[in-house]
Request: fold
Amino acid sequence: MLTLIMTRAENIPAGFAPGRQIARTAVLAAVLLTVAAIVARRATPSHWLLIPAFWVFANFFEWTVHRFPMHRPLVPRMMYRNHAGIHHGAFADDSMAMGDARELSLIMMPWYTIILLLLAASPVAIVAALIGGLPLAGIFYIGALTYFLFYETIHALYHVAPERLARFGIGSHGRFARMRAHHARHHAPRRMSHVNFNVTVPLADVVFGTRERRDAGPSLSQTAGAGKGAGDVAGPGAATDPGAKAI
Reply:
C-alpha cells in the first residue's frame, strides 16, 4: 500500500487543486452547452427526440476511445500514457478508492479533453447538420456534452471510498453498485486491456462481447503473488486471464 500511495503522489501535478479542476470542467461545459443550446433553439420536437440516439452513439464512442487510444499505444500516446499508465497504475481492482481529494487528478480528464472529444465526434455533427440543419447539430452537441459530464461524474464516484458514498445512500446496492463492480473488474491489471470498457452503461460491452463480471476469474493480485507495485501492472504486455470469460 505504501508503494501505491507513493506512486499516486508522484503523479499528482504540483499545485493541483480538485476544486479548480472541477470548476474549469464545469465552466467550459456550461459555455459549450450554452452555445449548443443557441444553435439548437429552432429545433423541432422530432429533433429533440433524437437525444437518446445520440447518447447511444456516445456510448459506442466511449467504448471505442477507451478500448483503443486509452489502452493501446497508438500515436499520439498521450491518452495511453495518462490512462493505462498513470490511472491504472494508481488504481487496481483491489485498491479503487481515492485516499485524498488531490488524487482526483489521476481520475478526471484534463479540462481541455472535452474540446478534443467534441472535435473527434464532429463528423457526426456535420452529418446531423446536413440531414436536419444546424439545430440538429446543436442537439447532437447537447447530447455529447451531457454524456461527457455524466461519464466524468460517475467515474469519479466509482473511485470514492464506499463508506463515504454510504453517507449519501449510494453504492451499497442497485445499479450503481453493479456498475461500480463492472468498472472495478476493468481495473484488474490482467483484464484492463480486454474487458469492461464502458464506464457509464455497458451497452457497447454487451454488443461487442467485452462485458465481464467481477467474479469471472482471478485478478493479477490473486494469481501473480506479492511484490509488484502499482507501476508494474499497467504496461502494454498485460496478459489475458485464462480463468475469466466475457459474457
Summary: The two ends are 32 Å apart (CA to CA). The chain has one domain: 2-11+19-232. Residues 2-11+19-232 form one domain.
